[in-house]
């Protein structure tokens, strides 16, 4: 009997240990069924990409260090990957959802992403990364909340609102893709959507009747956190809410110095969160506006998204003209100065208790320097291509990370130049050789005639400088070495440069690309390969059990069908199942020992 009691108390202790281990980093699961639906956001029926029948897709809402499982069922007629923009995928580029690391999920198949949102907070979004699919939808918000033990640097808001803005075409994404494949430009978008809906009819001439618009209801005297993401194709948008200030609080996982803006330019792929005080008299509803920037505004008038902010005590519909965009047609520094004003809150805690500014990036010695220069489209082999430093990236049939895992030769070259090529452009699979624990300076030089934004997977980099003209070594004298914002997507103005610093502490293969979908599709991207020479699971997780195989490794892939789609239970989830069984067994023993 003494031995039995000892076993009983041993089981009790194990149960409690497992309980506490899972209380720290719980699991959150989502199921995504990705399919086409017919919608008419601009009054024209068209094919859009929905998730679980929703357009836009559902918001993923998790907390720092949560383990996230997203089972994706691909019901499209083409392959699919979901990219988690700004989610750093610490130690696991296997989950990043881009072609350099993942084989595509074939049509009628499913695949489960498993990743941890390690040491991150903030506002992000997800989207399909292949075949220009983001131009058809498939996107949604991704929120990472602070843990309870980490205070946020403002009072807890009364509500949390996600707003997805973006330019939109009534042609479906395959037609847009065909235009690019045949050497055409996409042309002016047909409109701007707010949360998947067209404009409120503020003008009978510019907006046809019968278009559904976004309406956001708020209570007076409250403060709301609004998370705004530009998920569009290629258009920078100015975001504003009539008669309201936007108190900037966070951008892509970094708390900012809190500043009021009457409007803010949000470039493709960027995310911001604002604190909105509902302090107006609600004599009418208020316009929410997202309008195109850096364009001929008279021609682009109809490319304007308009929604409604509705107070519960509102006395009538919004009327009159829209609140104006910045009047800076002849002042090309206005928007750049606004961007420079966005600074890191060095005293606020982020995902960890220590202040964000305790990482003193300005005092770290740079070990690697790359100048990445773009140009207008060029012809390579008779086809129009987009380049970065003279190289148009060709995605390999075997993903780079998979090729490394199985030592497949000839898939890519580790020869991306540190400075732009001087000869004719080339189409190659050329990759940057990053040094693990190195500190890299990247200068993004935009010699194109249009705005570009650049994104880097796996990291938050520090935006330390931007200016018009060509970058030179003397430009370093203008760098912000104290409170430059840490983020994953930065704008580069036409005829200008932006400098970023990044600490290469995350092992994997990481995409760096323009967020402008047309130029990305045509090859303006590369990858940074970061390898720890002392291979260890402490710096990179093993290849997932459910990894897909393609290209040179296609024969390793077992057949699958969408109807067999049950998310695999593995790793910590199996331990959780074991814990549940153990608790049941222990409870069953209680009557025996009493």
UniProtKB/TrEMBL annotation:
GO molecular function, one term: oxidoreductase activity
A Pfam family reported for this protein in Swiss-Prot or TrEMBL: Cu-oxidase_3
Residues spanning the signal sequence: 1-23
Membrane topology: Lipid-anchor; GPI-anchor
Subcellular location: Cell membrane
Cofactor(s) in the UniProt record: Cu cation
InterPro entries named among the record's database cross-references: Cu-oxidase-like_N, Cu-oxidase_2nd, Cu-oxidase_C, Cu-oxidase_fam, Cupredoxin
Chief localisation class: membrane
PANTHER family in the record: MONOCOPPER OXIDASE-LIKE PROTEIN SKU5, MULTI-COPPER OXIDASE
Family recorded in the similarity comment: Belongs to the multicopper oxidase family.
Record protein name field: Monocopper oxidase-like protein SKU5
Organism encoding this protein: Lupinus luteus
């Amino acid at each position: 009997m003494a031995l039995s009691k000892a076993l009983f108390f041993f089981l009790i202790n194990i149960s409690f240990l497992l309980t506490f281990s899972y209380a720290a980093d719980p699991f959150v699961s989502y199921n995504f069924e990705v399919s086409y639906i017919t919608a008419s956001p601009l009054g024209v029926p068209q094919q859009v990409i929905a998730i679980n029948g929703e357009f836009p897709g559902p918001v993923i809402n998790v907390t720092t260090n949560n383990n996230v499982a997203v089972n994706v069922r691909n019901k499209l007629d083409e392959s699919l990957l979901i990219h988690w923009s700004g989610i750093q995928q610490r130690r696991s580029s296997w989950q990043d959802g881009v072609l350099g690391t993942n084989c595509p999920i074939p049509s009628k198949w499913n695949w489960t992403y498993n990743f941890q949102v390690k040491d991150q907070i903030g506002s992000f979004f997800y989207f399909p990364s292949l075949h220009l699919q983001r131009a058809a939808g498939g996107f949604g918000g991704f929120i990472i909340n602070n843990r309870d033990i980490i205070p946020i640097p403002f009072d807890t808001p009364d509500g949390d609102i996600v707003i997805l803005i973006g330019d939109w075409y009534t042609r479906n994404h395959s037609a847009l893709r065909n235009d690019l494949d045949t050497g055409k430009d996409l042309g002016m978008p047909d409109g701007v959507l707010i949360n998947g809906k067209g404009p409120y009819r503020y003008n009978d001439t510019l907006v046809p009747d019968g278009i559904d618009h976004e309406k956001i209801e708020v209570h007076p005297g409250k403060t709301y956190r609004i998370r705004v993401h530009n998920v569009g194709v290629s258009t920078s948008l100015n975001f504003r809410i009539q008669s309201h200030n936007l108190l900037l609080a966070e951008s892509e996982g970094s708390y900012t110095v809190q500043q009021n803006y009457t409007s803010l330019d949000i470039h493709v792929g960027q995310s911001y969160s604002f604190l909105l005080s509902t302090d107006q008299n609600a004599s009418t509803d208020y316009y929410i506006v997202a309008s195109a920037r850096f364009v001929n505004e008279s021609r682009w008038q109809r490319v304007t998204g308009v929604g409604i902010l509705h107070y519960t005590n509102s006395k009538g519909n919004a009327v009159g003209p829209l609140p104006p965009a910045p009047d800076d047609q002849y002042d090309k520094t206005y928007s750049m100065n606004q961007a420079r004003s966005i600074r890191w809150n060095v005293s606020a805690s982020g995902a960890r208790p220590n202040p964000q500014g305790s990482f003193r990036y300005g005092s770290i010695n740079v070990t690697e320097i790359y100048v990445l220069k773009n140009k207008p489209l060029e012809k390579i082999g008779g086809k129009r291509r987009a380049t970065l430093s003279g190289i148009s990236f060709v995605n390999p049939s075997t993903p780079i990370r998979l090729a490394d895992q199985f030592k497949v030769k000839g898939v890519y070259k580790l020869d991306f130049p540190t400075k732009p090529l001087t000869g004719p452009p080339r189409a190659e699979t050329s990759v940057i050789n990053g040094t693990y624990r190195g500190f890299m300076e990247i200068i993004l030089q935009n010699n194109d005639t249009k705005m570009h934004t650049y994104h880097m997977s796996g990291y938050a980099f520090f935006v330390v400088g931007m200016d018009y003209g060509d970058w030179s070594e003397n430009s370093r004298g203008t760098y912000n070495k104290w409170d430059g914002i840490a983020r994953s997507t930065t704008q580069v103005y036409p005829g200008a440069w932006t400098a970023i610093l990044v600490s290469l502490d995350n092992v994997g293969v990481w995409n760096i690309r323009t967020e402008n979908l047309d130029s990305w599709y045509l090859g303006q991207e590369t990858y940074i390969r970061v390898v720890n020479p002392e291979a260890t699971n402490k710096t990179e997780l093993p290849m997932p059990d459910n990894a897909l195989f393609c290209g040179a490794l296609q024969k390793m892939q077992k057949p699958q069908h969408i109807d067999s789609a049950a998310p695999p239970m593995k790793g910590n989830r199996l331990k959780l199942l074991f814990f549940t069984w153990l608790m049941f067994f222990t409870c069953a023993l209680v009557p025996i020992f009493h």
